[in-house]
Design brief:
Two copies of one chain form a homodimer.
Chain A lengths: L2 H17 L6 H7 L4 H8 L2 H21 L13 H9 L5 H16 L5 H4 L6 H6 L9 H21 L2 H37 L1
Chain A binds a DNA duplex (30 and 30 nucleotides) through helix 3.
Chain lengths: 201, 201
DNA sequence: TCACTCATGTAACGATCGTTACATGGAACA
DNA sequence: TGTTCCATGTAACGATCGTTACATGAGTGA
C-alpha cells in the first residue's frame, strides 16, 4: 500500500471512469495515466488484480458517499428516501462511478467468474437501503424488487439520454404512486381496526 | 442474400445469444459455427459488418415476435398491456435476444458511434408500445419513462438473478399501483365533472 | 562502503486479433 | 469446351494483447 500505488489507483480510476471497463488494455491505460504497462503489472500483479483493486476502491468510495445520505427519515414523512437516494445517484460526481459498476455488473453476469465476487454485495446496495426504509404497509420482497428496478431502469435511462429532468419527474411519479398506495392501505387498516374494536366492545 | 449467408447469420445469432457481444472475435465464432474467419469476412465484409447484420436480424425477429402481442386491449380493462408485454419479454425464447440487445445498447452508449445507428429506434420500442396504451389519466412523458424504466430494471434483475417469480410479482405490484392511481384520478375527475354540472344547473 | 530492496526502463515472448493475398474447386453459362 | 463467377482453403501480414526477463538507478540501513 505504498503512496505510489495509491496514486496509480487514483489515476486508474479516473481513466476507467472515462473509458470504461470492457475494452480495457494495459498499455493505453498506462500511457493515459503517465506510467507503463510494466509498472502496472509490477504493482498489481496482473491486469485482473488491477481491476479488482480499482473496483474495490470504487465501491468503497460509493459506500462512504452513500453513508452521507443514510440519515434519511421514513418514507411518506418528509422527503422520501428514494428521492434523496436519487439525488445522490444522479449527482454528476457519483454517476460515473455508478456507470462503471453497472458495466462491471453486466460483464460479471455475462461471463460468470469475472469480478462477481467483488460485486456480489454492497455494490448496488442502495436497493437494500431503500427497501429497509419502506413503511410496513408496502414492504415486501416484490415491492423492494420493484423499487430497485425503478432505480436501475431510471439510472440506465439517465446514463443513456442524459435527460435528468424527465427521469427525475418519472421518479417523482413513482414516489407519488407509492405514497398513494401507502395511504390507501393504512386507511383500510384503520377501518378494519375500528371495526374490530367495535365488535370487541 | 444467398442461402449460405442466411445460414451463417442464423448460426452467428445462436452463437452470439450464448456468448455475448463484448469479447467477440472472429476465429472462435467461426469455429463455433463450423466455418472459417476467412469466410465470415468474405460474406460480411468485416467483423463490424457481421455485427450490423446480426443485430439487424435480431431486431427484426423481435419486432415480428412483438407484433404477435400487439393486439392487446387498453390498460385497466382486462389484462394489462404491461403484463402481456412482460410475459412476452420474460419468455425464455425471447429473453436471450433482449439480453443481446441490452448488451449492444450498453456498448453503444459507452462507445459512441458503435452500433448506435442500428439501435436508435425499434430496438427497445416496447416502451412506446406500452406508453401508447396508457389511459389518458396517467399518460405523460414522465409516466412513460417510468414504465420503461420498470421494464428495463426488472428485465435486468431477471437476467441477473433468474428469479422469474419475484420479478413477475414486482411487475404485478407496479400494475396495481398504476391501476389505483388511474382509479383515483378518474374518481376525482368524475367528482369534478359532477360538481361542474351541479353548478351549471 | 556495501549489500539489499524497491522502482523503473527496455525489450522481447508467445498468443491472438482483424484482415488480406493467393490459389483452387466447382458450377453456370457462352 | 472454355470462361467466368462464387465459394472456400491455406497462409500470412502487421498490430496489439498480457506478461516476463533482464538490467539499472535510487534510496537505506549495517
Amino acid at each position: 500500500m505504498s503512496d505510489r500505488k495509491d496514486q496509480l489507483i487514483d489515476r486508474a480510476i479516473d481513466y476507467l471512469l472515462k473509458n470504461g471497463l470492457a475494452g480495457l488494455s494495459l498499455r493505453p491505460l498506462a500511457a493515459g495515466i503517465g506510467t507503463s504497462a510494466r509498472l502496472l503489472v509490477f504493482h498489481f500483479g496482473s491486469k485482473e488484480g488491477l481491476i479488482e483493486e480499482v473496483l474495490g476502491e470504487v465501491q468503497e468510495r460509493l459506500r462512504i458517499s452513500l453513508a452521507t445520505v443514510a440519515s434519511a427519515k421514513a418514507l411518506v414523512a418528509g422527503e422520501a428516501p428514494m428521492k434523496r437516494c436519487w439525488r445522490w445517484a444522479s449527482d454528476k460526481r457519483n454517476l460515473p462511478y455508478l456507470r462503471l459498476l453497472y458495466e462491471a455488473h453486466f460483464i460479471a453476469v455475462r461471463v460468470p467468474g469475472t469480478y462477481e465476487r467483488y460485486l456480489n454485495r454492497s455494490s448496488l446496495n442502495w436497493i437494500e437501503f431503500i427497501a429497509s426504509r419502506l413503511p410496513e404497509s408496502i414492504s415486501s420482497a416484490a415491492m423492494a424488487t420493484l423499487c430497485g428496478a425503478v432505480f436501475d431502469g431510471l439510472i440506465m435511462e439517465l446514463l443513456s439520454t442524459g435527460d435528468l429532468r424527465r427521469t427525475t419527474r418519472a421518479l417523482d411519479d413513482f414516489i407519488t404512486l407509492l405514497r398513494r398506495e401507502h395511504e390507501a392501505r393504512t386507511r383500510v387498516a384503520r377501518i378494519e381496526e375500528r371495526t374490530y374494536k367495535k365488535r370487541k366492545a
